[in-house]
Give the backbone structure.
Amino acid sequence: QSQLVQSGAEVKKPGSSVKVSCKASGGIFNSDGINWVRQAPGQGLKWIGGIIPIFGITNYAEKFQGRVTITADDSTTTAYMELSSLTSEDSAVYYCARTRRSDGYNFDYWGQGTLVTVSS
Amino acid sequence: DIQMTQSPSSLSASVGDRVTITCQASQDISNYLNWYQQKAGKAPKLLIYDASNLEAGVPSRFSGSGSGTDFTFTISTLQPEDIATYYCQRYDNLPPRFEFTFGPGTKVDIK
């Protein structure tokens, strides 16, 4: 059974960093991509960036450039999203999603979401 | 930057009604448009990819159409379990560059 399992909720201080993990199983990590999306309370979905592990290619949304780093570990089929210089506006649920590249280009598997709360 | 708009932002309809949501891109995006359903407290779910292709396992009452800048998502016969927020998503894939943009969402309620 293919799935993405994310790390647990985090509470962070303003100015700190958070690193969220996303473990893939069931063969959905190889040549596909992993992208990250966040959703602030009561708000819509915002794309943060993504990685295609087999090619080592990353792309980031302009809004997060310089503050986000997405990496992947092939040996453990785990992707990571690290966001630095946190402010209260970064409080959100963060989702990872498998990027299927064979039928169009879309997010067909999603993690369960990780709540990140930034508070002093 | 390509901007995505959706209308309406919310709607209320009766069970059995036909529901239509539109998504507009600020530039021609061909058919590079996906639709997702998000129920409260859950991760989004892919329904339609490349404007009109129904994802495997998704009920046939869901459909999509359009190309260029104007797209339509339709629920032919609204069911109680369709209460959710629906998002369009545009993508750009010119290797090595890829980029995604979501629309603001349309919340669907039962009247």
